Amino acid sequence: MHTTRIRPLLGTVAAAALAVGGVLAGAPAANAAGVSGPAFWVDGEQYRTVGTTTDFSGTGAPASSFQPIYAFPEDTQANVATAAPGDPGYRGGRWVVTEVLLPNGYGAALASGDLDDDGVLDSDEELWAAAAAGDLAIGGVLRYFECPVIPLPRNGG
């Protein structure tokens, strides 16, 4: 007798699982479930993360509770965050993801912002140097979310 109530419930659960899977499949690698490879830079060091499906947009949380992370266009470079665990002001992995625009192309931003000549903009200091030169602009907020910050092992893997 209870099977008539359980079958619709199972169908709802299966549909929800497929919907979540579809969202994750369409998300960038750093936002999908599982430990990522190198995902973003903080002060010249690369970090990885575990993708989560959290979304704090519209929650009313104060802006000061989120750490900026700057999302570069796909196929340019990894994102740049402003702090990692142990840094002053680190907010526990709560991020406001903000779009990076490259009005003169990535090469121009790299030429004006790569202060240590390592071939990548790998700190917020370098990001702001490119912005001061007019080769990088900060766009709108893409989302608010939470994910951990995990140092890469010393062997890079």
TrEMBL record:
Secretion signal span: 1-32
Keywords per UniProt: Signal
PROSITE patterns: TAT
Domain of life: Bacteria
InterPro entries: TAT_signal
Signal as UniProt keyword: yes
Name recorded for this polypeptide: EF-hand domain-containing protein
Species whose genome carries this gene: Agromyces bracchium
